[in-house]
Amino acid sequence: MDKDYKRTIKTASKKKTISKINLAIRVSIWLSLGISCTLMLFCGAAYISNSKVFQVKSIEIKGNGHIEENEVLTLLDIEEGINILGWDMDAARKRLLKHPWVKDISISRSFVPAAVNVRIDEHKPTATLVLKDRPYLISEEGHVFASAPQDNYGLLIQACDYEPLGTGEDLNDILKDAINAVTVVEAKGLKVKDLIIESGGMMNIRLDRGITLVILGEMTSDKVDMALKTLKEIKPECGTIMDLTCEDKIVLRNRGYHGS
């Protein structure tokens, strides 16, 4: 028995065709949305970068006494009219902190209206250090922070012959002890003329009455009290050196005179 075979022609399912069309439409929609969002962001960024709303209207600087305002503005790298959104505030702060006179600084900004506020905390020079014939300013914490415009700003500390002994002493630590020593001495009513730091950190505190107090390390109230008692009882002559390096006694030296 013969069977008739007919060629079968496959036709695409209507569901598959509709699904492909829907996919193409969705892709087109999302692509259009992506392009539109990109264009909107680009236009928005262009508007913001050119908008006068975000242009700096004012820059306020406070606390600067030794730093010129123009110098602060240069380190801030900003001026009125610049778009505040493109300004790197953290980088500006780091640049200002490198300035020798700047101890600390705070910077704040507002966007509408665009403004920058800067408050500078400067070092307070309390003495002048002469080291190797060059003058430097010393802060109240005992740190050298800048070259001195003159060699007689506040207390004069001379260290022309200072050389570290290699035992780990640090000049800043010695200067801190020196500042504290002068503070303790003057708190007891004695007037300090100047101070000399010798090699190894030995300090000679020269009083205005011609007496020199010699110490090594920290000056204490007890040592100053001993010096005051000696000044009252012995009344040493001008040029006398009072060695306070010992804890429990004072050694006097002056033109061949020795005592304790």
Rg on CA atoms, Å? 38 Å
Query: How would you characterize the largest beta sheet?
Result: 10 strands, mixed
**Widest sheet, order of strands:** 6-5-4-7-8-9-10-11-12-13
Shape: elongated
What is the quaternary state of this protein?
single chain
Strand content: 25-35%
Tell me the number of helical segments per DSSP (H or I, 4 or more residues long): 5
Would you mind describing this structure in some detail?
The chain is elongated. The strands form two sheets. The chain has a ten-stranded mixed beta sheet with strand order 6-5-4-7-8-9-10-11-12-13, covered by helices on one side. Strands 1-3-2 form a three-stranded mixed beta sheet, with helices on one face. Mean pLDDT is 84; it is low at 255-260. The protein contains five helices and 13 strands. The protein has helices spanning 14-50, 69-76, 89-97, 171-187, 221-233; strands at residues 58-62, 102-111, 114-122, 125-131, 134-139, 144-147, 155-158, 192-197, 202-207, 212-216, 241-243, 251-254, 257-259. It has 260 residues and is of the alpha/beta class. β5 and β6 form a beta hairpin.
Layout of helices and strands:
Layout: H1 14-50, E1 58-62, H2 69-76, H3 89-97, E2 102-111, E3 114-122, E4 125-131, E5 134-139, E6 144-147, E7 155-158, H4 171-187, E8 192-197, E9 202-207, E10 212-216, H5 221-233, E11 241-243, E12 251-254, E13 257-259
Parallel strand pairs: 1-3, 4-7, 7-8, 10-11
Antiparallel strand pairs: 2-3, 4-5, 5-6, 8-9, 9-10, 11-12, 12-13
